[in-house]
Amino acid sequence: MLMYLNGQIIREEEAVISPFDHGFMYGLGLFETFRTYNGHPFLLDDHFDRLHRGLDQMRIENARYDRQETARIIASLLDANNMDDAYFRWNVSAGNAPVGLRTSPYKNPNTMVFVKGLPENGVREKKLHVLKQKRNTPEGPERLKSHHYLNSILGKYEMSPDQKGEGLFLTGRGHVAEGVVSNVFWRKGMNVYTPDPDCGILNGVTRQFVIRLARSKGFKVHEGHYMLNALLEADEAVITNSIQEIVAVSSVGEQMFPGVRGELYEALTSLYGRATREERLWSGKEWEER
């Protein structure tokens, strides 16, 4: 597979960065994962708005988003890999600096764009398994999509290799947080509930778009702090991320749910499918304005 590194498209095995990159030494790096539909990078502006907020917090400069240039790189990678659509990971790390923590800005970051093929048949249903490992609190004002991934990895380790589904984090206070790689929603009647970002979750781009979709279908969306029983007593549940899109929950532990037969799942997937097939959206706000 071919990838992008600091202005060049190269083979993955040729990619090299210095061990003095503070993204490697201290975790000072961020990434966004997104996919294309008919060659269009869906909600790209929203992904890069979040990336830039994080870069500002980490004092990483000179990695600003230009839609035209970014879209050109994505199109070049699709062409170079002979792919119509793909999974992309756009990664920015702080760049090289001497050993030791610093407060001055990083002015020469490394930008890497990884490409993967998309699964032929997407996952429609998953089981959720409540993890013993708690979701940690963010290191700053909000959870960033950063190189600090140990908490998620520990949650992943808790799942046995033959255990299908996804782990579900609770907070240290017992509130529902998020999946290892997803945000979670559940429905009770016409009310839809999802953990508030101040629970320490990643405020996912797809999460934000799904909130818009749910409200457009007449559901009342609530963001808050909810104990596990609130989820277990729901009529249905779904999880979301930018690659798997919207996935129905078939069970949480021993509690069964309707999965793909759920009213919320059917409404959301219909709208999401239309948005990705028929619209070339750069942001969720564009969808609302149309």
DSSP helical segment count: 8
Domain count, please report it.
2
* SSE pattern, N- to C-terminal: EEHEEHHEEEHEEEEHEHEEEHH
Q: Which CATH architecture of the largest domain?
A: Alpha-Beta Barrel
Radius of gyration: 19 Å
- What is the CATH topology of the largest domain? D-amino Acid Aminotransferase, Chain A, domain 2
Q: Helix share of residues? A: 25-40%
Distance between the termini: 37 Å
**What profile does the largest beta sheet have?**
9 strands, mixed
Overall pLDDT level: 95
Write the layout of secondary structure elements.
Layout: E1 2-5, E2 8-11, H1 22-25, E3 29-37, E4 40-41, H2 44-58, H3 67-80, E5 87-93, E6 110-116, E7 125-130, H4 150-158, E8 166-170, E9 176-179, E10 183-188, E11 191-195, H5 205-216, E12 220-224, H6 228-232, E13 236-241, E14 245-252, E15 255-256, H7 263-278, H8 284-289
Parallel strand pairs: 7-8, 7-14, 11-12
Antiparallel strand pairs: 1-2, 1-6, 3-4, 3-5, 5-6, 8-9, 10-11, 10-13, 13-14, 14-15
Structure commentary:
The protein is an alpha+beta fold. Strand 14 and strand 15 form a beta hairpin. 28% of the residues lie in helices and 28% in strands. It has two domains: 2-116, Aminotransferase class 4, branched-chain amino acid transferase, N-terminal domain (D-amino Acid Aminotransferase, Chain A, domain 1); 125-289, D-amino Acid Aminotransferase, subunit A, domain 2 (D-amino Acid Aminotransferase, Chain A, domain 2, Alpha-Beta Barrel), CATH 3.20.10. The protein contains eight helices and 15 strands. The longest helix has 16 residues, at 263-278. Strands 7, 8, 9, 10, 11, 12, 13, 14 and 15 form a nine-stranded mixed sheet that branches. It has a six-stranded antiparallel sheet with strand order 2-1-6-5-3-4. It has helices at 22-25, 44-58, 67-80, 150-158, 205-216, 228-232, 263-278, 284-289, and strands spanning 2-5, 8-11, 29-37, 40-41, 87-93, 110-116, 125-130, 166-170, 176-179, 183-188, 191-195, 220-224, 236-241, 245-252, 255-256. The mean pLDDT is 95.
